[in-house]
Design a protein that fits this description.
78% helix; 172 residues; mainly alpha; single chain
Length: 172
């Protein structure tokens, strides 16, 4: 019973923080709400007794959100950080809501077509060593190459952001 209560609390925190993260117009508040989402996910890992994944979630993503704070301070103008610019227009809000609704319908249709709702979850516990091998292996259904591609993509985004910031600085 306690697990259900904790899961419910964590789920509410994750959903509320996620909604606040995508609806706020201030970048620092969005990063803070995203931090709450990530801590909530780590809490679910701890609730499931996956302490390694919970600790990794906190270590990796808390560091990532710290980097978001640094880049938000460095790359965004002071007026934007204070919330004095970039108000959300109603047309953009409606387009975003429509895109989110279309995405929800597509995901729901895919899940229904795949029969996901009727799948029975096997009562098999996966050892942590198998999870570790899957995360760092380079074979079929292993994830080291996608992680490397994502890291290169994020590095390219960081470099691009710095170049854009330098160009704006030189133009001023």
């Amino acid at each position: 019973m306690g697990n259900i209560v904790m899961f419910t609390i964590l789920a509410v925190v994750i959903i509320a923080s996620g909604l606040l993260c995508v609806t706020t117009t201030r970048i620092m508040r969005a990063a803070t709400f995203m931090l709450f989402v990530l801590f909530g996910v780590a809490g679910i890992y701890f609730l499931l007794d996956y302490t390694f994944l919970g600790a990794a979630q906190i270590a990796v993503y808390a560091g990532g959100v710290t980097m978001i704070y640094v880049f938000a301070i460095q790359l965004v103008s002071k007026r934007t950080l204070q919330g004095l610019e970039e108000r959300l227009k109603t047309s953009r809000l409606l387009r975003g809501a429509l895109c989110a609704l279309v995405g929800l319908v597509v995901v729901t249709l895919i899940l229904l077509k795949a029969g996901f709702y009727s799948m029975e979850i096997p009562n098999v516990e996966v050892p942590m060593s198998d999870i570790g091998r899957a995360l760092v292996g380079s074979g079929k259904y292993q994830y080291v190459l996608p992680f490397e591609f994502i890291s290169l993509f994020l590095l390219a985004c960081i470099i691009g952001g710095l170049i854009v910031a330098r160009k704006e600085e030189q133009e001023s």
